Amino acid sequence: MAASGYTDLREKLKSMTPHRDDYKPKVSDYSNGRKRKYHDSEEDYSDYEEQREVEAQKVQDGIRQVNIFSSVDCAHIEAKIDDVVSKAEKGLYREHTVDRAPLRNKYFFGEGYTYGAQLEKRGPGQERLYSKGEVDDIPDWVHELVIKKLVESRVIPEGFVNSAVINDYQPGGCIVSHVDPIHIFERPIVSVSFFSDSALCFGCKFQFKPIRVSEPVLFLPVRRGSVTVLSGYAADEITHCIRPQDIKERRAVIILRKTRSDAPRLETKALSATDPPAATPERPRILKPKRSHRKADPDAAHRPRVLEMDKEENRRAVILPEHRRKRGSSSENYWRRSHEASDSYDDTDDNSNSARKVKMRRH
Predict the structure, then answer these.
(1) Which key words are in the record (predicted)?
(2) CB neighbours (10 Å) of residue 34?
């Protein structure tokens, strides 16, 4: 060691790898319980945080929250929401009034519109109002118990609301990030929460299988009976959503909006000569609500599966000679059936003809 001029092995290793002095490990900052995104420097990170704070303030400036519904008011309105759910289950609403989704049902009144998977062309700006009369009118109790109190409290002007939507969430339900269609609805957007407390999140990104949601730019608690009014940046320039983790109990929200006079609308389909007329011209026919998911068939799991290749083998078995049939049997189901069939025969007499076999019934 002395001959090489180094008295400490660490000094020798350090001289051999001088570039390691400038190396800084790329670690994540877990301060305040949050995982920080990677940035090249602390200065970049501070700029990123500052931008998020500025955006959060813009969102906050476009939000107004008021409490005008007491616990007694909430209980009365919640009973009416249960009546809506009951009527929908009995099929007493028009077809487009009810829209079902896993852990969330929507009930459109006054005006309804196409969105999500219902769109012929996906993307913002493709939403369309249904033709007049496609959804049921706004119930009288919504006018008396909800809209009237909002007008008296000067949250909205009289005659503003012509669209009311009830979203009924079960625990774990959600609605993905979106902006209420600007070409469909005027601003502001007013919502009233019932049954339980929850939260509205802004600026989240959803990923699926499994479902994951990024950290919000702004987390807004919404209490039972609270009124939330969105306008400006909060309504138009950033998405909002309901995360699954924020619905711990059943929660319902009544969304009150006004449609634009120039909002695009689906064209009314003319009745053909073969269509039966309605029972009464004054009252439209009652249609059962559409269901977006098929009911499972309990006997489906016990039916034998027949693959297309098995069908092909059966067709070939009629044409090909026996020695070629055996070589051509490549289907897994065909192979399994042939072995099960061979095991299900019981030879009662060793000396008897091999053709005399009794097939056992499989249970």
Answers:
(1) Dioxygenase, Disulfide bond, Iron, Metal-binding, Nucleus, Oxidoreductase
(2) 10
Burial of 53 (0-12, 13-18, 19+ CB in 10 A): exposed
Residues 6+ apart with CB under 8 A from 260: 183, 184, 185, 186
* Beta carbons within 10 angstroms of residue 68's beta carbon: 15
Instruction: Report d(CA 363, CA 320) in Å as an integer.
Output: 32
CB 229 within 8 A of CB 63: yes
Digit-coded pLDDT (tens) for 192-237: 999 999 999 999 999 988 999 999 999 999 999 999 999 999 999 9
pTM score, whole prediction: 0.64
The pLDDT mean for the chain works out to 78
Distance, in Å, from the CA atom of 63 to the CA atom of 220, rounded to the nearest integer, reads 9
For residues 47 and 230, give the distance between their C-alpha atoms in angstroms, rounded to a whole number.
27
CA atoms within 13 A on the CB side of 212: 4
Got the DSSP string for 156-196? S-TT---EEEEEEEPTT--EEEE---TTTB-S-EEEEEESS
Report how far residue 348's alpha carbon sits from residue 40's, in angstroms, rounded to the nearest whole number. 81
Q: Distance (Å, rounded) from C-alpha 236 to C-alpha 256?
A: 16
Rounded CA-CA distance 231/43 in Å is 33
pLDDT tens-digit profile of 113-131? 987 655 566 666 889 999 9
CA neighbor of 256 nearest in space, from 323, 358, 186: 186
Any idea what DSSP says for residue 211?
A: T
Q: Is the pLDDT of residue 267 over 90?
A: no
For 39, half-sphere exposure in the C-beta direction (CA atoms, 13 angstrom radius) is 13
Structure-token pair, residue 63: 């939000």
CA distance 120 to 249: 34
Alpha-carbon distance of 332 to 335, in angstroms, equals 5
Alpha helices in 215-307, H assignment, sequence order: 232-236
Residue 191 has a CB neighbour count (10 Å cut-off) of 18
Q: Which residues are catalytic?
A: 113
Residue with tokens 């001088």, as numbered in its chain? 18
Whether the CA torsion 88, 90, 94, 98 is positive or negative: it is positive
